[in-house]
Amino acid sequence: MAQESASRLLSEHDSKQLLAGFGLPLARERLVEGADAAMVAAAELGFPVVLKLCGEHIAHKTERDLVRLGLASRDAVRDAAEDLLARARPEDGLQGLLVAEQVSGKRELIAGLVRDREFGPCVSFGLGGILTEALGDVVFAMAPLSREGARRLIRGLRTSHLLLRPFRGDPPADEERLIELLMGLGRLGVERPDVASVDVNPLLLRGAEPVAVDALVELSEPAGIPVASVRPVPAARLLERFQPLFHPRTIVVSGVSSHPGKFGFAAFHNLLRWGYKGEIVPLSRDGGEVLGRPTYRDLAEAPGTRADLLFLCTPPAMNLELLRAASARGVRAAFVASGGYGEAGAEGRERERELVALSDELGVLLAGPNGQGVISTAESMCAQIVAPYPPPGRISVASQSGNLVSSFLNYAVQTGVGVAHAISAGNAAQ
Q1: What is the pLDDT of residues 244-255, one digit of tens each?
Q2: Distance CA 369, CA 404 (A)
Q3: CA 418/CA 391 separation, integer angstroms
Q4: What are the CA-CA distances from residue 17 to residues 10, 12, 272, 280 (Å)?
Q5: Are the C-beta atoms of 97 and 54 separated by less than 8 Å?
Q6: Using CA atoms, how far apart are residues 157 and 125, in angstroms rounded to an integer?
Q7: pLDDT value of residue 60
Q8: Are 288 and 313 in contact (CB under 8 A)?
Q9: CA-based nearest residue to 90, from 44, 45, 56, 140
Q10: Residues 93, 57: contact at Cβ < 8 Å?
Q11: pLDDT value at position 304?
């Protein structure tokens, strides 16, 4: 449930002061009170300069015509300062005039921070200016960012070649400076949980050097949520936790059946058909062979190798016992295709709570129940109860809806768009 929050925007000057403490490279500027002081500051910075009206409640300066560019003389600065001060409103919380060096660059970027309810602080980076809307080339990563994580973020842009190669006479962007900038935004997101968002736009490349020309910071203190309790999970820990779900070495499939209409048959068949690289341990109530492979009545009969992922296609009454047995064999992730849980009324909701409680107790990552399946093309793994298996690629798909995931996968098959991972979360109980 969304929490109400009280938020406020910092002025441009205060936003930049905050960002400077986290290493963001800013254009040189001065905050002054009047036209005379603006002329002095402009002379110190060197012409041409930019002049802006700055206030605690001024967020959209361009819309109010509160910015003057290319001021090349003291007289031009004086005239612009007097004009801007005359446009001030009582509600602006006026701080004064910002006098800044005018930065020129052929490449315009955006960078920032957003705070997501599920993922916590996330750093954003992309192309700015008119290309923002034309190409929509923006990438995101959870904070904090390692050096390598920031590098991947930069190179994750479809148009990263515009940054990492010479461009219209300009040298390649200083990638290390961009990495430091993105890491600084990540540190800000972790160390300042009261910062709801950061918008650095534009971020210009002056030759190879990134320079933040404008910035806006939004502060927020969510009602009813102690700020100190909002703790991000390190990316390395998240990757480790999801490893057995998307990159298992051995999969136990429960409920394998010789009947083609059963979930257990479909999941087992799809794993074999698409050449899963690891081992498969099929469990069947009746034993015998299915698809030419021997099955086991329970895990005690199966060979003694460890397992990573349990794929449950059995009735809810059997799943707690199977989960305990699989956990004892090393399983740290379970995908539950079985229905009859939260979607099935009060009794189902209680069964779902028991499933989650046991998974938490055992330290097992739980996907589902009532899910369609999980795909990892790097492992040639199609552990799902429907057929679409896409070509490998870089896009990943996650949805509560199995139908939506199937639609994406069918489209990928038809068009050749590559997919790395896909999962339908079903009830998303855990």
Answers
A1: 999 999 999 999
A2: 17
A3: 5
A4: 10, 9, 58, 57
A5: yes
A6: 8
A7: 81
A8: no
A9: 56
A10: yes
A11: 77
pLDDT in tens, 297-351: 999 999 877 899 999 999 999 999 999 999 999 999 999 999 999 999 999 999 9
Whether the CB-CB separation of 225 and 117 falls below 8 Å is answered with: no
HEC assignment per residue over the chain: CCCCEEEEECCHHHHHHHHHCCCCCECCEEEECCHHHHHHHHHHHCCCEEEEEEECCCCCCCCCCCEEEEECCHHHHHHHHHHHHHCCCHHHCEEEEEEEECCCCCEEEEEEEEEECCCEEEEEEEECCHHHHHHCCEEEEECCCCHHHHHHHHHCCCCCHHHHCCECCECCCCHHHHHHHHHHHHHHHHHCCCEEEEEEEEEEEECCEEEECCEEEEEEEECCCCHHHCCCCCHHHHHHHHHHHHCCCEEEEECCCCCCCCHHHHHHHHHHHCCCCCEEEEECCCCCEECCEECECCHHHCCCCCCCEEEECCCHHHHHHHHHHHHHCCCCEEEECCCCCHHHCHHHHHHHHHHHHHHHHHCCEEECCCCCEEEEHHHCEEEECCCCCCCEEEEEEEECCHHHHHHHHHHHHHHCCCEEEEEECCCCCC
Q: Are strands 120-127 and 107-116 parallel, antiparallel or unpaired?
A: antiparallel
Q: 326-345: string of b/e by CB count within 10 Å (b at 16+)?
A: bbebebbbbbbbbbbbbebe
What is the rounded end-to-end Cα distance, in angstroms, of the chain?
16
The torsion of the CA quartet 50, 51, 56, 62, rounded to 10 degrees, works out to -70
Type of residue found at 163: L
Could you give the C-alpha distances from 337 to 99, 188, 343, 355, in angstroms and in order? 62, 40, 13, 13
What value does the CA radius of gyration of the chain take, rounded to a whole number of Å?
Answer: 28
Q: Which of 290, 263, 281, 251 is nearest to 376 (CA)?
A: 251
Task: Quote the pTM value.
Answer: 0.61
Task: Choose among 153, 120, 119: nearest CA to 138.
Answer: 153
Model confidence at 1: pLDDT above 90? no
